[in-house]
Structures are given as structure tokens and as C-alpha cells.
Amino acid sequence: MPTDIEIAQAAQLQQILPLAQARLGLPQEALSPYGHFKAKLSLDHIATLADRPDGHLVLVTAITPTPPGEGKTTTTVGLGDGLNHIGKRAMICLREPSLGPCFGMKGGAAGGGHAQVVPMEDINLHFTGDFHAIALAHNLLAAMLDNHIHHGNALGLDVRRITWRRVVDMNDRALRHIMVALGGSGNGYPREDGFDIVVASEVMAILCLSASLSDLKERLGRIVVGYTAARQPVTARDLKADGAMAALLKDALAPNLVQTLEGNPAFVHGGPFANIAHGCNSVIATRTALKLADYVVTEAGFGADLGAEKFMDIKCRKASLKPACAVLVATVRALKHHGGRLQGLAALEAGMVNLQRHVENLSQHHGLPVIVAINRFDADTDEELALLARQCAAWGVECVLATHWGEGGAGAADLARAVVKCCETASSQARGLYDDALPLDQKIRTVASKIYRAAMVSFEPRAQQQLHEFQAQGYDRLPVCIAKTQYSFSADPSQLGAPEGHVLRVRELRLNAGAEFVTAICGDIMTMPGLPKHPAAERIDVDAAGRISGLF
Q: Distance between CA atoms of 172 and 374, rounded to whole angstroms?
């Protein structure tokens, strides 16, 4: 059986400029090509689309995943192809993969099998350079901050209260906590520092939530980099860094247009992680797609407790988006995993509490009509699939078997028809969990109690102090972004199924004043992941002809 990369390399891609004109009506001058098969759509042209009506927005999310993932991106691609296969005008909007996980656990994140976005190698590696621009803009601010301190510190920054860390797009645990400016007075003032991965950067979040270049620059200026001894915030605008950062990000803000294996248009733009950030592609890409297509399929990272909640409470809140329905991806493999130590049908039946919890959260708390999509694996038995279908029917939820990995759009045609019917007949009451006016601690408690079914939230002393400080500084009206493990409803990855009555422990809070949300770091989650014992990088290679292998 061919691998994902072999399938992608065997595909006959269409040149992106003719494709964009034929499928989306985009003139050639509106696009900046990066080679033959990928291009950026100009912000000027996007502005001309404002008066067009919006299409239907479909959110693809998932149950609590196993480490390999349950095929959420693959299903997003397959559903987009499936909608086009049944004659609908559809686009997909995905995040860009991060190099850290690609070389760590995932080995790639552009879909799989016959449901991929291409050129697969480009998308998984440097693509159009967006992540590099984000890293440069982020680290430019870090350099200007230390330079300001070195040259007299006129703003009075307290070096013990600097909050702006550096970033790199690679999993590197050795950089989590470091010392900088060693080696004498010519190198600045020594202090503690550290690195996060690029997908956790506030600059990434800002780019993905900005509505325009002017909005981007305004948000960059509001970034808080640290505090004075009197605990007054110091911003990127105070350091006069916002203009140069915006200049570095000018091209990165334009969405990237590529295609699926079946030649259907796709935006792949932005890439915040869902367990440590808000996990959605850019607002600009989503809004633009809604002007260009009748159906727009987008994903939110990891399980619905993380990706879908943040999609609703951060992205949709800020961008005034209203999804028509949610497609909840499940696999027999993952549900049996959540069944614990049981085997066979007993494990599947026990593990379905995880699926039920996600269905309830999406429908009851977010007001979304839900379709369960079973991403079929070869090992799934007819008995297992029948049990799943019966259980979903008992809950009153439509369950559709999808075989897009092996069959492309044709394998997702039934799912596509179910989505169209839902968009046309169901009434979406899409909503967030809480009001803006709710205090930060109550917003965190609301997510913890309603979505995670936690009994209580425990704020460690540092987090408790930060709550008081952020409220005093006027940031209490911001939404919250909870950073926790993706492998459980709780903050403990070993608690499978649908745990309840647990305690959510908040270690610290991080203010994202430009992105306009507050991140709560919970449990043992890290904003700089590490590589596994045998990272995917060990299997990635390139031959003398430049042909890449090992991405999957």
C-alpha cells in the first residue's frame, strides 16, 4: 500500500493560477505565485469581496484523540472533496503544519491517503515562509527588548518581570529554560529566559485573528513584554517595535491558496496549536473562503474540548462567525482506547462515553447541530461499526461512515450529503460558553465545569496573583484559552473516557493583550514540546534527485 507522501508525489497537480481563475473566479493579478502550485491571495483583492454573501461554515472537530490522531484533517479534506463531488461549490480552510511536530510525533499534517492538500512536501516543510516570518517578528521584539535594557532601560523594565520569551519552530526541550546575555557587559544584562514553539507565540495568534494589516499592526503594538518595578505594563509599541514587526508580517498575513489531490481549492494559513493556543486557521482565510464558496469546511485542532471550544469562544467571538453545524470525527480505534483495559466490543461500548460527552458539549453548550463521522480504518469490523451506528441513533445523532482516506471525495459523498441537509434544514444556535463581562476566573471555571466536567479549579499562588493583576489592568473582559493535555477531558492524560469530578490545576496565566485572550497553563502542559524517543525526523530523508521520503 503506498504511503501518504507516495500518493501525493504521484498526483498530477493543476497550476494554481488557472485553477484559481476557473474554480474561484480570481484574476491572475490578485495572486502572488510561489512556484506553480501555491500562491498568496492579495489583501487588496480580498477587500473587494466584502459585499458578497457568506456561504455555510462547517466545523470539523474530533473526539479525544490517541497520539497518532484520528484523521480530523484528513476528514476535513475528504469532506471538502466530497462536497465538490456531489456538485457543491466548496473550499476548505486548514492550519499550516508546524515543523516541530512534523519532525517529532506527526511526520506531517496535510491530511492522508487520497484526502490530502498538495504540494504535500512544501506544506509540511517551509511552505511560503509564514512561520519563519512569525518567528522573526517575535524574536525581533525580544532582541529590541534586551537592546533597550542594554542601552539604559529608559522605560524602567524590571528584568525579573519580563514575560516575552523567544520562539523557534522545533520541539527542543533544552530551550525551555535558559540564561541569556552571559559573557560580560558587552552582551547585555544576564537574566532568565526561555523558548516556546512558534505555534504558541502571541504573534501567531495575532496574525490568525487579525482582520487587516492595520488591525495586525494595532494588535502587535498592544503586546505586553514585561512590567516595571511598579508593575506597570510595557508594550511593543513602547519599544517602537510594532512597525518593523508588521513589515515582517505583511506578506505572511495574505492567505495561502493550494489544492486538494482532486484539484479543489484550499486555503492553508496560520497554525496555532490547540492544546497550548487557540488551534484555528486565520480569520482572513475563513472569511475570504466564505465569500468565494457556498460551503467552507474548516477544522479546530485536537478534540472538541480544546479546538471546538476555542473556535467558538475565541475565533468566532472575535470574528463574528457562526458555523452551521459540527462534524465530530471518531474512530473505532480511539473509542476502544477510551474503553480502558477491556477488549473488543466491550472496549468500544465502554469508550463511547467519550463520544457522547463531545456530542453533548457541542449540541448543548455550543448550540451546534452535530454529525458523527466515522473515519473507517481497515481493521474496523462490521459488528463494531453497527454498534456505533446503533448508539448514535439512540442519542438522536446522525452517524455517517466515511472512507475518504482510500476513496477520496467519493468516500465522503454520504457525509457531504448529510452536511448539506443539516445546513439547509437544521437551525444552528452557535454560541460561546460565557459572556465577556464574566471575570477571568469564572470564565476558566465555566469551561472547566461545563466542558471538562471538573469539580473545581485550583489556582496556584502565581496564577492567583496574576488574576488580580490582570483584572486591575483592565484585561478581565478577555476570553480565556486553556492550555492542557489533548489526551483527556481532564489535565491528566491517563484519565481516559469521560472523567468527571476532577480538579483542574492552573499553574500560571499568560496575558496575550494583542491577541485579546488570556492563556491558562494547566497541569503539566508545556509550551515548548520535546521530541519523542524515536522522532519522525529519523525517518525523513531526501535522495540525490531531491525526492523527499519519510513524511506521512
A: 35
The residue from 61, 64, 73, 74 that is catalytic is 74
* C-alpha cell recorded at residue 157: 523594565
Whether 108 shows a pLDDT value over 80: the answer reads: no
Task: Tell me the CA distances in angstroms from 483 to 25, 152, 225, one per residue in order.
Answer: 40, 36, 20
Question: Cα dist. 131→151, 263, 344 in Å?
Answer: 30, 25, 43
- CB half-sphere exposure, 414, CA atoms < 13 A: 14
Asked if 72 is an active-site residue, the reply is: yes
C-alpha grid cell, residue 9: 508525489
Instruction: Judge whether 249 and 5 are in contact, CB under 8 Å.
Output: no
Say if pTM beats, i.e. exceeds, 0.90.
yes
The per-residue pLDDT of the chain, averaged, comes to: 95
| pLDDT on residue 5 | 87
Say if strands 115-118 and 256-260 run parallel, antiparallel, or are unpaired.
Answer: antiparallel
The cell for 466 is 496574576
Containing H/E element for 357? helix 344-360
- Alpha-carbon span 156 to 449, nearest angstrom: 41
443 among known catalytic residues: no
Out of 37, 127, 302, 517, which one is annotated catalytic?
302
C-alpha 136, offset from chain centre = 20
d(CA 552, CA 127): 16
Q: Is 3 one of the catalytic residues? A: no
- DSSP helix/strand/coil, 117: strand
Catalytic residue among 377, 381, 390, 421: 377
Question: In terms of Cα–Cα distance, which of 129, 141, 169 is closest to 272?
Answer: 169
CA atoms within 13 A of residue 177's CA, in its CB half-sphere = 1
Catalytic choice (23, 40, 88, 95): 95
Per DSSP, the three-state class of 423 is: helix
Q: Is 388 exposed, middle or buried (0-12, 13-18, 19+ CB in 10 A)?
A: buried
Q: Give pLDDT, residue 245.
A: 98
CB 411 within 8 A of CB 400: no
Bridge-based pairing of strands 517-522 and 480-483 is parallel
